[in-house]
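Margin note from the TA: students keep mixing up input and output lines. Inputs are the sequences; the output is the structure of the whole complex. Example:
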Amino acid sequence: MTTRNDDPTTGSLSTLSTLSEKECRELLGTTTVGHIAFVDRDGQQLIPANFAVLDGVIYLRTAPGSILSQLASGHPDVAFGINHHDVFRTGWNVTVRGTAVGVEDRATINVVLGHKRLRPWAGGVRPLIIRVTPSSMAGRRVSGNTA
Amino acid sequence: MTTRNDDPTTGSLSTLSTLSEKECRELLGTTTVGHIAFVDRDGQQLIPANFAVLDGVIYLRTAPGSILSQLASGHPDVAFGINHHDVFRTGWNVTVRGTAVGVEDRATINVVLGHKRLRPWAGGVRPLIIRVTPSSMAGRRVSGNTA
């Protein structure tokens, strides 16, 4: 669905498109860094994370003892997001909502660790793998706002 | 603080720097799109938002009836994030934690609406202004991971 959104108060002109789930999944394959939101006992967390998607499931790689590592014991309500925007005021974002839990199956861990997308940007030894299983996915694209 | 983070399991090499609050504030001035995380009665939300910083306070502009507009009635625990990363595996992120509430003071609304950074990417008429007052700020920069 694409709609024009012109703002008479600012003169801005833009096109806003809602992305299909297929488009969201395709965009999840184009980047390796996202951010995950969840509440722990310290409150609202929002943390960047290196990730890969395998068979429709999002895998994050982290280090034991990190804030992210808390998710290994399971969390019923997380949101994972990716986004892109450029100086031409064009951009897109995808947000996945779902549950998170640590991966204990050794075969899955090996497949995930072998995935080149999960080479962590932040470096370091990060052997802990968190699985985010999507319950919903939404995204949108904004373009043409050059007024 | 800068640390080397080399991962013997992947061969990745990188430098991870913790950003000072001053650096975080400077980076908040370099972009106009972030994302805000908060919990509402539907659970964890993670929503992109156009923003500007004035006098150390983050102002988001949204439309009445949007998910973001719920914050107008006040929220004690939100996290607002910005990030940048490129194909050279270099990037940074800043996360601000704090409280959110709608702005009712007309003079402040006019200043915020007049700020060129708050010209919304998604267009449309968005007269509702949400103030995020930071209680803490953290960020990091990752660079040189080209192995």
